[in-house]
Amino acid sequence: MSEEDEIILSELDDDELVAQMHDDLYDGLKEEIEEGTNILLERGWTPYDVLTKALVEGMRIVGIDFRDGILFVPEVLLAANAMKAGMTILRPLLAETGAPKLGSMVIGTVKGDIHDIGKNLVGMMMEGAGFDVHDIGINSDVDKYLAAIEEHSPDILGMSALLTTTMPYMKVVIDTMVEKGMRDDYTILVGGAPLNEDFGKAIGADAYCRDAAVAVETAKEFMARKHNQMAAG
Ligand code: B1M
């Protein structure tokens, strides 16, 4: 692009800027994503709207072209890095709600799986809703989950999987917890693009969460039930 053609992000109106951010995410342009994120915030957008309308929607478009063989792993990695740079700006703002502490959660992506954007997003939204979140990262085997549960005694265990080949590992974790007699001590929430409600039921999770907002609502519901049970019993 010649210098005269250079796009000045701050001169675009909101719709143009969001469309440009989708393009920039697609092209893996980290600095432009950071700039666009800051501009939208300065214009009074809520962190949640920036996240969902500019970043998540941009990544949805990347996902379609990845699926269709138009984009490949290196390009998608760049897009993911650009997305994470935007999320880094939003994270403290989403966590800053001053919501009272509702409970705690351990969350990780299962063994064999390195996708972490969705998990990170769920963690951010849960923090924003008032949960203490202990993120154990990607490629987490059952021992890592159990060690984190022992260390943090969370109310909720969250597992993320993005691959059809890794989602069955969630059942390995739950079955191990059943064997150890500790399954019922925790609410287990699962999520990730290839999962659905039937899968969640079949592996013995308490609930499947379609997205981060549903994860927050579901976690709150289970915490309310837990408190009601404690009050009754
Ligand atoms: Co991957 N990848 N990828 N990838 N990748 C997918 C998942 C895929 C669907 C793309 C495609 O073909 N259409 C496909 C999986 C096919 C399948 O199994 N059905 C795929 C593949 C095949 C692969 C590789 C095998 C490619 C290869 O090497 N040939 C490889 C596997 C690596 C591995 O894990 N072992 C691979 C690698 C990668 C990158 C490293 C390049 C990169 C990941 C970078 C990173 O995460 N740091 C990547 C990406 C970015 C994607 C896509 C394009 C985007 C995923 C994403 O971040 N989405 C993805 C396409 C897609 O999903 N349509 C794809 C945005 C995010 C906000 O959404 O993660 O769905 P999501 O999270 C949502 C909900 O699902 C839910 O809430 C989140 C927020 O709303 N949620 C939870 C998620 N986890 C939750 C946990 C909860 C609750 C809700 O707990 C309570």
Average of pLDDT? 94
Total strand segments: 5
The topology string of helices and strands comes to HHHHEHEHEHEHEH
- The percentage helix is 55-70%
Oligomer status: single chain
How are strands sequenced across the largest beta sheet?
2-1-3-4-5
Largest beta-sheet details: 5 strands, parallel
The count of helical stretches stands at: 9
Overall geometry: globular
Walk me through this protein's architecture:
The model has no long low-confidence stretch (mean pLDDT 94). The protein starts with 13 loop residues before the first helix and ends with a helix. Strands 2-1-3-4-5 form a 5-stranded parallel sheet, with helices on both faces. Helix 2 (30-42) packs parallel to helix 4, helix 3 (47-67) runs antiparallel to helix 4 (73-95) and helix 5 (117-128) packs across helix 9 (212-232). Strand 4 (187-191), helix 8 and strand 5 form a beta-alpha-beta unit. It is 56% helix and 13% strand. It contains 9 helices and 5 strands. The protein binds CO-5-methoxybenzimidazolylcobamide. Residues 56, 59, 62-63, 66-67, 73, 76-77, 80, 107, 112-119, 121-122, 158-160, 162-164, 189-194, 209, 211-212, 215 line the site of CO-5-methoxybenzimidazolylcobamide.
Summarize the structure.
The chain has 9 helices and 5 strands; from the N terminus they run H-H-H-H-E-H-E-H-E-H-E-H-E-H.
Based on the model shown, name its key terms.
single chain, 233 residues, alpha/beta, 5-stranded parallel beta sheet, 9 helices, 56% helix, globular, binds CO-5-methoxybenzimidazolylcobamide
Topology:
Blueprint: H1 14-26, H2 30-42, H3 47-67, H4 73-95, E1 103-110, H5 117-128, E2 131-140, H6 142-152, E3 156-160, H7 169-179, E4 187-191, H8 197-202, E5 207-209, H9 212-232
Parallel strand pairs: 1-2, 1-3, 3-4, 4-5
Bound molecules: CO-5-methoxybenzimidazolylcobamide (B1M).
